[in-house]
Design a protein that fits this description.
This protein is mostly helical. The protein is built from six helices and no strands. Helix 2 packs across helix 6.
Length: 91
């Protein structure tokens, strides 16, 4: 059996991957694993470019209002980035 990575899905099957990610973020059983996978893609410069992640994230943000799990992911991501930025200013 071949292991499929989220980054590969974002590259090879962008539209289907988007629907899959939205569904996975909305499901409490798969939310954390999906959020972790998205964070790993975002933290890897090569994957970030290869997957066009900023565009994917923008699309997720646009759908967040209608999907509680996506909203949770987007708000947590924003909070983490805001706290990290604020800590950088305190140094």
């Amino acid at each position: 059996m071949r292991r499929v990575r989220l980054a590969d899905l974002l590259v090879d099957h962008r539209e289907r991957a988007f629907d899959l990610v939205v569904t996975a973020l909305d499901d409490p059983a798969t939310h954390e694993a999906t959020a972790t996978g998205l964070s790993l893609i975002e933290s890897d410069a090569a994957q970030l470019d290869r997957t066009a992640f900023p565009h994917f994230l923008a699309a997720l943000s646009h759908t967040a209002r209608r999907h509680r799990g996506v909203l949770r992911f987007v708000l947590r991501r924003h909070r983490v980035r805001t706290v990290s930025s604020a800590e950088g200013f305190a140094s």
